Amino acid sequence: MNTAEKLNMTMLCDFYELTMGNGYFRNGYKDRITYFDVFFRRVPDEGGYVIAAGLEQLIDYIENLHFSEEDIAYLRGRNLFCEEFLDYLRDFRFTGDIYAIPEGTPVFPREPMVVVRAPSIEAQLIETFTLLTINHQSLIATKANRICRAAMGRTVLEFGSRRAQGADAAIVGARAAYIGGCAGTACTISDQLYGVPAGGTMAHAWVQMFDSEYEAFKTYCETYPTNATLLVDTYNTLKSGVPNAIRAFNEVLRPMGITKCGIRLDSGDMAYLSQEARRMLDEAGWPECQISVSNSLDERLIQNLFLQGAQIDMFGVGERLITAKSEPVFGGVYKLTAVENEKGEIIPKIKCSENVEKITIPHFKKVYRLYNRDNGKAIADYMTVYDETVNENEPLMLFDPYATWKTKNVCNFEARELLVPVFLKGKRVYQSPPLKEIKSYCKQQVDTLWDEIKRFDNPQTYYVDLSQKLWDIQQELLRKNRN
Predict the structure, then answer these.
(1) Of 245, 271, 361, 468, whose CB count within 10 A is highest?
(2) Mean of pLDDT over the chain
(3) What is d(CA 158, CA 177) in angstroms, rounded to the nearest whole number?
(4) Is the entire prediction scored with pTM above 0.90?
């Protein structure tokens, strides 16, 4: 099989999803409607929130779900599946409903990012890819958002393709990084496919290719006069790199009236070198020349550079962003929360655990975000049963579901539902916004969070509260399962 041509990802599933599907089919559960939530229990890097991402790829996957004859032949060869089930797979398509929180939205532990309502086999078979795309892109978007906030308004570019865990991680990772706040990427195909602005200048090989550093810089300025960013650390940053860059700027760009240019540092003491380079450039009459840096950066290192007085205008961040190196796994899970009986009634289901944080929140749910009408800031998220509504004209009492004596009355608020319909009865009803709009929406939504929630160290907990009705249902199920 030519794997490059296998664009259908239906077989990208855990094998138990197929064996369970076969079991459901043989035991009369094929048409039973089920409800599954995608959610996470902890924010990576002990942060205050996560940026939702990956929905567009999930949509593409759902729209292309099908089993080829080659897939069915493979499954038949495993001698585990009945022929009736394989016939069912031959005509397989998704016929259920999917609700999701739009990409770019800050989200918090335990609340559903995606809700799947579908016949049991359909809901089970999409588990792996749903988690894969939401987990990966939400992880990278979240890391990018942390790094961009650390940069305090300076430009951040994603530079990590060559160290990503595979081609797809590089391509959609750049997309997720853009949603999280990066201005662009070094990954050309991400620009071609998704419109993430791609850019770049030179590597050390360009400088080494010429007989002298000055000749390399001069030639580059002549070739790309409107995009001249020179890599100045190939030999000696302050003794040759910066002086040769200034000489090339003076001789090539200044006669053209071009003042927009840059230098890049990729090694050494970034704080000291950037300070000295800034002084040299200013003294030479190039105050508009931007200084960019790269070399295994992350939000902590960027923060420390500014504490040391670094003079940096742009950051190229690679491996520690595209792999989320400090915490490279996003722990999203896919859990059954309800089923429908023969009468169409929704029966809540719960997963119990001695580990309190692993106890699930049952039922088909809504998620509201409550905003203060005076300042637009997010107050809390509020989960309810699907048939509940929030009356914005009456005070709403919130309580901590883990410490119910902690209560707060909320007034003068606006309640917005976060989950939107994406598929209804198998048909797509949601149009993904342009990527630039998702990025802008992400920034706007992050701005609704209080600064205390956005701290890197010990952020204030943002509350995700349950309605009284939902909490009562959860507690009743816990009592029933205790016996």
Answers:
(1) 245
(2) 95
(3) 7
(4) yes
